[in-house]
Amino acid sequence: MTQDELKTLVGHAALYYVEADSIVGVGTGSTVNKFIDALAAMKDRIAGAVSSSVASTERLQALGIRVFDTTEVDELAVYIDGADEIDHAGYMIKGGGAALTREKIVAAQSRQFVCIADESKYVATLGCFPLPVEVIPMAARRIARQFAALGGTATVRLKDGVPLVTDNGQQILDVTGLKISHPLAFESQVSQWPGVVTVGVFAFQKANVCLLGTPDGVKTLAF
Predict the structure, then answer these.
(1) CA 90, CA 85: separation in Å to the nearest integer?
(2) Contact assessment for residue 101 and residue 83, using Cβ atoms and an 8 Å cutoff
(3) What tens digit of pLDDT does each residue of 118-150 get?
(4) pTM assigned to the model
(5) Which residues are catalytic?
């Protein structure tokens, strides 16, 4: 099966975790787009969705699914999102689509996090995928030096030759050269650096379940 077919497979499998009449937390990215498309088939059986990005909001609305603001909802039963990497404990790196801050907010608002991914995202140790970190621009150079002290190389993410601007009006640093063997401690440490908005390690908001697309079908991992 192609990677795109595996994404479609897990996108449809995630419908099992959607409760009738509920408001669903929806993430961002190419795998989540497959889930959004599948969710359209049951849009009359849910109340709507809370989205983690402008792109996902637009896709949901185009399919006739009502999108609520996070401030309108106290708690979500489930949050469905992808990952750039996920390890054996359910810890993840996220933010390849630059939506990590809103993703972490919606994840924190949800009782259950269901990660949907193809098997290429399942790793022994986080860090092969460049770590996204959303930062306030005036702090970017200093934060890059702090990552250098940890052995990492941080570069500002560009779009069309200029620094990418997130939905929150900030910049993204992509950090390479790290092996994150203690995700909880790492997330706690970097989150305290002045100027860091969100670090793309999801340890405190880890996955509870991962639906992993494999050539043999969907493998369910519980953490």
Answers:
(1) 10
(2) no
(3) 999 999 999 999 999 999 999 999 999 999 999
(4) 0.95
(5) 103
